[in-house]
Amino acid sequence: MARKKIIAGNWKMNKTPSQAAELIKELIPVVKDSDADVVICTPAIDLSVATEMTKGTNIAVGAENMHWEESGAYTGEIAADMLLDLGVQYVIIGHSERREYFAETDETVNKKVRKALEKGITPIMCCGETLEQREAGVMAEHIRMQIKLDMAEINADDAKKVVIAYEPIWAIGTGKTATADQAEEVCALIRETIKELYDAPTAEAIRIQYGGSMNASNAAELLSKPNIDGGLIGGASLKAPDFSKITNWNK
Fold first, then answer.
1. SS3 state at 171
2. What is the reported pTM?
3. Helices (DSSP H) in the chain: which residue ranges?
4. Is 129 a catalytic residue?
5. Is the pLDDT of residue 175 over 80?
6. Which CATH topology does 6-247 take?
7. Is the dihedral of CA 231, 235, 237, 239 positive or negative?
8. What does DSSP assign to residue 15?
9. 24 and 243 in contact (C-beta within 8 Å)?
10. Where are the domains of the chain?
11. pLDDT in tens, 69-117
12. Among residues 104, 129, 167, 184, which one is catalytic?
């Protein structure tokens, strides 16, 4: 059975609640005929507006981060139950910006992924290499290690629910994009690693996104590759016409 594509917008630290409402109003009619699962991952302050406005539409809402504890003295953090209460269905975990600027590690990413799965929230788990790692020839080793550590203690049934986002760090927000062949090579490597960790059915079931400067002009080529099951979209997700073109890549 073919894997359904998943196009998720990562708004990052953009859009006030009122601006979010304007963008969502624009998005609803232009993505409604997409053959992909369409997700918008918004800043925490926009989640209430997003979940309310997307009711009855084909747009699901995701958060950009989540803590692994149920509750407690974690100032500024958000628990899974808080997201569930709003109707949030997805959460981005381990984005390279979280790892770089907020000291997230493979250990904390793994804790968050496990908590999301426990609560029934779909984790979009990010992995990727720096330019230095790619040029040093350790890209494959680094990606395989990330996948193994981030998926630790997760059984095969739960692993199938995880969305993995491959994001070459050198191609995020830089305008540089891995070629479709480069992106396909790493997504195939990720799938092979999942097969080694679990089995062939799990590897075939898991969805792998590409997340490095996918835009309206290159989405169709990237999404035509057999191991690329979607996109984690940054800047282009903030413009309804561009996001629409990506979600309707095959039309």
1. helix
2. 0.96
3. 17-31, 47-53, 80-86, 96-101, 106-119, 131-135, 139-150, 156-159, 180-197, 200-205, 219-223, 240-247
4. no
5. no
6. TIM Barrel (3.20.20)
7. negative
8. -
9. no
10. 6-247
11. 999 999 999 999 999 999 999 999 999 999 999 999 999 999 999 999 9
12. 167
Are the CB atoms for 117 and 151 separated by under 8 Å? no
Tokens (6 digits) for 63: 């958060």
- Please indicate whether residue 69 is annotated as part of the active site: no
Q: Specify the pLDDT at position 1.
A: 61
**What's the rounded mean pLDDT across residues 176-203?**
94
Which one of the listed residues 95, 97, 104, 129 is annotated catalytic? 95
The mean pLDDT value for 53-67 works out to: 98
Q: Where do we find the tokens 């290499």? A: 129
CB 111 within 8 A of CB 125: no
> What are the tens digits of pLDDT across the range 115-165?
999 999 999 999 999 988 988 999 999 999 999 999 999 999 999 999 999
Q: Tokens 């609803």 belong to which residue?
A: 28
Tokens 């760090």 appear where?
Answer: 169
